[in-house]
UniProtKB/TrEMBL annotation:
Record organism: Lactuca sativa
Residues at which ATP binds: K529
Record-annotated membrane-spanning stretches: 437-460
Annotated Protein kinase domain residues: 500-776
Gene Ontology CC: one annotated term: plasma membrane
Protein name: Protein kinase domain-containing protein
Length: 859
């Protein structure tokens, strides 16, 4: 079965000293402090921190540990700086950009202060890196809890902080009450701007979108593994002093094969030569041409309640693998499929050169304890018939924890004796030290020979904590507003808008005027929303909105830059969106009409934004006012959901999926169920979004109350009726009806129809809306690719291959109650008018407060 690997035997020697073609990266900032010790050189030059320019004051003292473990280097571990009175800050003047911050700890008794008495917090530039941290507990945990790991005397914590222009890098140690803090060494190394930040290709696993890694994110490296290879020490890294560990202690069962490459690694523009050392790409763990059904699985304990970025490094080193489609494999992270058909040759345009992929996953915190959970990474052959070999392989792995919205990376201390949390308790075999085969690999793997270690399966039964089933569970409140939201003075706001000049008005909302303004010496255009003092939205809501919004960052949401609350003014400052509202491009305004594909992309983008609102934070956020004027378009027509003035936090209690609230929203978009029962759910946003979809398709307002037959007044109802009769194509915007592929229209209609169902529980969740719309886009693209010519036949529910089910004809639950319901409304105190809401049954005739925005004109 493994015969094809035989040629590799002839290259048994693999030397770590092969000449490397990679030029190391040259860091612009580099500090290495031997805290509490002297300037000295031991493989690298360490500077003393004594009287150095980094230390502002002297509320600390130096000490030496009572013992020294022979397995750890002398520098920096034979001295420490101790803080037992107050907090203490090191300040490093560095250039802007991302920096590695590495903290070296050796828990021991220092001047009579016992190791188990030390608890402290570490923060840096507004990020909370460690909180009530015990180096002693952490080291003990690492030494006992992992299968096959040796005792761990020392700990190195690695963070990445993005230093903004004009900032310095500060590191503050704060002892917990009646405790002390200590540090043995500090290292700061800059890294290439694009190595871990600004990645365009984050793949979200188990959800369709999530946080991006921006300058406001700090990272902690949790694992960095040279999969299938030996330990790579920091000096053999590509100039950034990262060290790469062996992966075998994290393997769940099968060891697989560890082939080694013989030829130099060729780096590319997408994978520059500093990405990872050649040694990482030259070794891998693979399965061989597998006839057995199994996965290669790694278990990686992490703190729960955080997002993690998995960076998987691949490079083809098996000479037999030469083309696209020869080896296809699946990648699973926490049992979610991250890739169904991973194909290295496809990713690298047929070359098989090094490449890496980033996968972001959220690790749910089920009981609010933030305790450690095993993250599962598994790979296995796809077993597609076209596959030549049934193999799967991985060369390197980096796992990063992403800071929370409030800038925190800190998890709790590990529990040494796992309190029997949930049944069943860990079985004794899970605690065994080095498994026999891993020891063999480790032994021979040191530096010289890593060859076919064909070992079937070693199964250590690891018993998992239970209760991991539900995917979406939000149990925690938001933290306090972060310091990342900028506060403007009223003068700055006035300067930016030329004293709220009328000509600067770009929008009028229910809550006040929106102006275009220019800040930062006129370099940056922003949208400035000045809340009407008469608005019912009080100061409290204003603050809630700031608190909520300052934590939300997503490419599909308009971001809040700052606010001003001077002199009784309530002003919010947002990113300026140069292409205005979606509605402006549909039927209001004089813009050229949007092509159908662009419309689809906008819908997908907005749906992703809403999905993020619903699931991205600890508690769901319900927008409550989704409409085409609240979807803005940037200069590239990327859709951004805006105006969270009415947003509500979702339910707090478990098992409840609505919040009680007075009805607010906009006629024509308002969820009838919400209107009836005043119970707001995420599905109310889904309804409104369904109305937007029809607006996009038909290019007309959701309510037309003059000049059209009654049945056409309400678009939601008109659209569903036509969908039901199979005549949706008749109401499509004439300007684009020739562009739309019939299958795509069917799919799109189906999505809109399902969003607009009367019963919230029958409507899809936003992530489902996203992928169904994406599917519609694929249908459109497939047809465009085939002939660029779309047939005129828009009827019929067929034309789709295979397993697609169409709601055709409509089911009973889809038939809306056609009733017209009139009521009076008040528009911000002054004008009054009449609005119409269709599809509603009036329950008790009582009048509800309905907020009506500018989309409906008074009759
Ligand atoms: C490595 O990358 C750097 C920066 O792009 C470049 O200057 C250098 O020539 C590269 N080295 C090799 C061997 O490609
Ligand atoms: C801090 O430690 C020093 C040296 O061990 C000791 O003299 C001093 O009393 C300690 N201060 C506090 C507040 O514990
Ligand atoms: C801390 O460690 C010392 C020995 O180093 C031990 O005597 C003491 O009981 C420990 N304290 C706690 C609270 O575990
Ligand atoms: C770092 O500390 C210096 C001096 O203590 C202070 O002036 C500066 O504002 C701090 N910078 C950051 C980013 O916290
Ligand atoms: C710090 O952690 C220790 C052990 O995890 C705990 O006993 C102690 O109460 C914590 N202290 C604070 C201030 O949270
Ligand atoms: C790979 O293995 C499968 C069965 O396990 C076999 O049918 C196939 O021929 C093998 N491919 C090669 C190229 O050896
Ligand atoms: C591989 O792992 C995935 C995800 O846990 C699982 O669904 C699949 O059944 C596994 N395959 C095998 C052959 O065990
Ligand atoms: C993944 O699936 C395995 C069984 O296939 C299960 O034991 C494990 O708990 C699952 N992991 C997660 C994180 O759900
Ligand atoms: C950040 O938020 C998390 C979870 O909401 C919370 O546990 C933590 O204490 C917060 N940290 C800070 C520094 O506010």
């Amino acid at each position: 079965m493994f015969a094809f690997l035989l040629p590799l035997f002839s290259f048994l020697l693999f030397s770590t000293t092969t000449t490397t073609s990679a030029q190391p990266y040259k860091p612009t900032d580099y500090f290495l402090l031997n805290c509490g010790g002297a300037t000295t050189t031991s493989n690298r030059k360490w500077d003393t921190d004594e009287r150095s320019k980094f230390m502002p004051s002297t509320t600390s003292f130096t000490s030496t540990p009572n013992k020294r473990d022979p397995s750890i280097p002398e520098i920096p571990y034979s001295s420490a700086r101790i803080f037992n009175t107050s907090s203490f800050t090191y300040t490093f003047r560095v250039t802007s950009g991302p920096k590695f911050l590495r903290l070296y700890f050796y828990p021991a008794t220092y001047s009579g202060h016992q190791a188990n008495q030390s608890f402290f917090s570490v923060s840096s530039n507004g990020y909370s890196l460690l909180s009530n941290f015990s180096a002693f507990l952490t080291a003990s945990y690492l030494g006992t809890q992992l299968v096959g790991s040796p005792p761990v005397p020392n700990i190195i914590k690695e963070f990445i902080i993005y230093v903004k222009p004009t900032q310095s890098l500060n590191v503050t140690f704060t002892p917990s009450p009646n405790s002390y803090a200590f540090i043995n060494g500090i290292e700061i190394v800059s890294l290439p701007e694009n190595l871990y930040y600004k990645s365009k290709d984050l793949n979200y696993v188990g959800q369709t979108s999530g946080p991006m890694i921006t300058e406001d994110t700090s990272l902690e490296n949790i694992y960095r593994l040279n999969v299938g290879g030996s330990q790579i020490s920091s000096k053999d890294d590509t100039g950034m002093y990262r060290s790469w560990d062996q992966d075998d202690r994290y393997l769940l069962s099968a060891i697989g094969l560890t082939p080694v490459n013989m030829t130099p690694i060729v780096y590319t523009a997408d994978t520059p030569n500093y990405t990872a050392p050649e040694l990482v790409y030259a070794t891998q763990r693979s399965m061989g041409n597998q006839s057995e059904l199994y996965n290669l699985t790694w278990l990686l304990p992490v703190d729960s309640g955080f997002y993690y970025n998995f960076r998987l490094h691949f490079c083809n080193i098996i000479p037999q693998y030469t083309r696209q489609g020869a080896v296809l494999f699946r990648i699973f992270i926490n049992n979610h499929t991250a890739e169904e058909r991973a194909d290295l040759f496809y990713w690298t345009q047929g070359t098989g050169y090094p490449v890496f992929k980033d996968y972001v996953i959220f690790v749910n915190d089920f009981d609010g304890s933030r305790r450690k959970q095993d993250l599962w990474l598994a790979i296995g052959p796809n077993r597609d018939k076209s596959e030549q070999y049934h193999d799967a392989f991985l060369n390197g792995l980096e796992v990063f924890k992403l800071s929370l919205f409030n800038g925190s990376l800190a998890g709790p201390n590990p529990e040494l004796q796992p309190t029997p949390p949930s049944p069943p308790p860990p079985s004794p075999t899970g605690k065994k030290k080095t498994p026999p085969y891993a020891a063999i690999i480790g032994g021979i793997g040191g530096a010289l020979v890593l060859m076919l270690s064909v070992l079937g399966f070693i199964v250590f039964r690891r018993v998992k904590h239970s209760g991991d089933k539900s995917d979406e569970q939000k149990s925690k409140d938001f933290g306090l507003p972060s310091g990342r939201c900028r506060r403007f003075t009223i003068q700055e706001v006035k300067d930016a808008t030329r004293e709220f000049d009328e000509t600067r008005v770009i929008g009028r909302g229910g809550f006040g005027m929106v102006y275009i303004g220019y800040i930062d010496n006129d370099t940056t255009a922003v949208a400035i929303k000045r809340l009407n003092a008469l608005s019912k939205q009080g100061f409290h809501e204003f603050q809630t909105e700031i608190g909520l919004l300052s934590k939300l960052r997503h490419v599909q949401l308009v971001s809040l830059i700052g606010y001003c609350d001077d002199e009784g003014e309530m002003v919010l400052v947002y990113d300026y969106m140069s292409n205005g509202t979606l509605q402006d491009h549909l039927y209001k305004g004089k813009n050229p009409h949007l092509p159908w594909k662009r419309r689809l992309e906008i819908c997908i983008g907005a749906a992703k934004g809403l999905h993020y609102l619903h699931t991205g934070a600890n508690r769901a956020i319900i927008h409550r006012d989704v409409k085409s004027t609240n979807i803005l378009l940037d200069e590239n027509f990327v859709a951004k959901v805006a105006d969270f003035g009415l947003s509500k936090l979702g339910p707090k209690e478990k098992g409840v999926d609505y919040v009680n609230t007075t009805v607010k929203g906009t006629l024509g978009y308002l969820d009838p169920e919400y209107y009836k029962y005043q119970q707001l759910t995420e599905k109310s946003d889904v309804y409104s979004f369904g109305a937007v979809l029809l607006e996009v398709l038909c290019s007309r307002p959701v309510i037309i109350n003059r000049g059209v037959p009654d049945e056409e007044m309400n678009l939601a109802e008109w659209g569903r009726k036509n969908y039901g009769k199979g005549t949706l194509h008749e109401i499509v915007d004439k300007r684009i009806s020739d562009e739309i592929a019939p299958n795509c229209l069917m799919k799109f209609g189906e999505v809109a129809n399902s969003c607009l169902r009367m019963k919230g529980s029958k409507r899809p969740k936003m992530d489902e809306v996203v992928w169904r719309l994406e599917f519609a886009l694929q249908l459109q693209e497939a047809v465009e690719k085939m002939d660029g010519e779309v047939s005129g036949d828009m009827k019929g529910g067929s034309g789709m291959s295979g397993n697609q089910e169409f709601m055709f004809p409509v089911k009973e639950e889809d038939v809306s109650v056609v009733e017209e319901y009139e009521y009076n409304y008040e528009l911000e105190g002054t004008s009054t008018g009449v609005g119409i809401q269709h599809g509603l049954t009036s329950t008790d005739g009582s009048s509800h407060e309905v907020f009506v925005s500018e989309t409906v004109l008074p009759r």
